[in-house]
Amino acid sequence: MTTYLIIGANAIGQAVAGNLVRQPAATVRLLHGADETLPAELAAQVTEMTGDLHQADTYIPALQDTPIVFSALTGPDVDWAFEELFDAQYHQRLPLTRFVMLSTAGVDDEVSGQLTYPGISDVKEYLNQQRYAAKQVDEAEFPYTILRPVTLTETPATPANIIAEGQPVPAGTVSRETVVQVATDLLINGGHDYQSLAIC
Hints:
SDR family oxidoreductase, alpha/beta, 200 residues
């Protein structure tokens, strides 16, 4: 039995959860804030958990049984949510198998060209929060992969162009479904441990 924990019920979080529930002998938990809702079909297939993602106690039940974790959190204050998550994990001595984090291109000043961040008013502060969240993942000392997609689109999936950390990344777009496929594969099959990958 493999336990997966998805944090965040946005489109990517829901799509990854939908892929994982089709895995044999998989238990999928989806933890999200009270302001998010799941479609009835997905809610019937996962263990839905809700709470304040800025409170450590919210994470304790979700982190039981050594889950493989995917954070689909986007927008501001991801670093705050991660502070509480890792505080709960550390103080409760809850081991994790691996952690896959959805971040964004631009956190390493690696993008050539102009990248857009829809819905973000203060890009500098947003990128600083993403950097701090990634630092917390790195310091937690279990296998992780950080995914840094360029601007997301609703277009059909295409083969992912994966660019290693430290390499220049061209500004542009990538299908949300492509990112979902990459995240799902990492959660099921592992690989790219301790790496930060741009997705174009």
